[in-house]
């Protein structure tokens, strides 16, 4: 008996599969190929890129369901849910003039409060100023059916204290449906303990709207790329499995990480999703290579049985 080569087996399989598809295909009906993925709908994008980078490259797996822009300005041409933010007092007029259109046109369901209010380099608000902004611009949205997210403090010790003071000054007159927080350091267990503490303290669902493997206390002690891969895998998996963590967004989906370790980036310098970005959205992360490694086809595909490959190709070509 003559033994078929791998290439011969592949071609024969392709012919057989194509013939089968031709016989069984309906001439009047087309079929949309759907990709089945495990989608917790928690993953989001903290997106500062406007329309200069294609946001849809992060959406094909279905893992990412929402995004925010540190502002009330959405990105065009995406089916992702947009969550506007009142970043600080300097954004109040824009937020106020935009919010009605966002409710009517986009059907937004949630808003985010001020960004790192206790930090001088961010929205830089006292708790009293934060309460005034909240009651003027955010609290009235509750009557329109929106869920209201707290101001998001940084993970400095002053952040939790600021948020406690904010709620004490509100004295029950501010509706905070969920707690937003940021966290930066290099230890996954420390991150988990931090989120658990915030949930225990404030007794509300959690949105982690910024986090990554970054040491701001010691610039010489940063995560390697492999450390980041492991850190992201551990923390993201934990949040996916933790009921009270409703949503999260990694920092960052951007070309310039603004002083953060560049290996945390989900895209390369051209704005194209890289291996870490693929890991974040549920694609395989097939090879090491850091922030500039573009996603590529897993080489192990070529070692699959020829009949399996032929079947897959036939579905596209036949």
UniProtKB/TrEMBL annotation:
Keywords: Hydrolase, Signal. One of its GO terms (molecular function) is hydrolase activity. One of its GO terms (biological process) is fungal-type cell wall polysaccharide metabolic process. SUPFAM superfamilies: (Trans)glycosidases. Residues 1-25 form the signal peptide. Residues 44-280 form the Asl1-like glycosyl hydrolase catalytic domain. GO terms for cellular component: fungal-type cell wall. InterPro entries: ASL1, Asl1_glyco_hydro_catalytic, GH. Coiled coil: none annotated. This is Glycoside hydrolase. It comes from Dendrothele bispora (strain CBS 962.96).
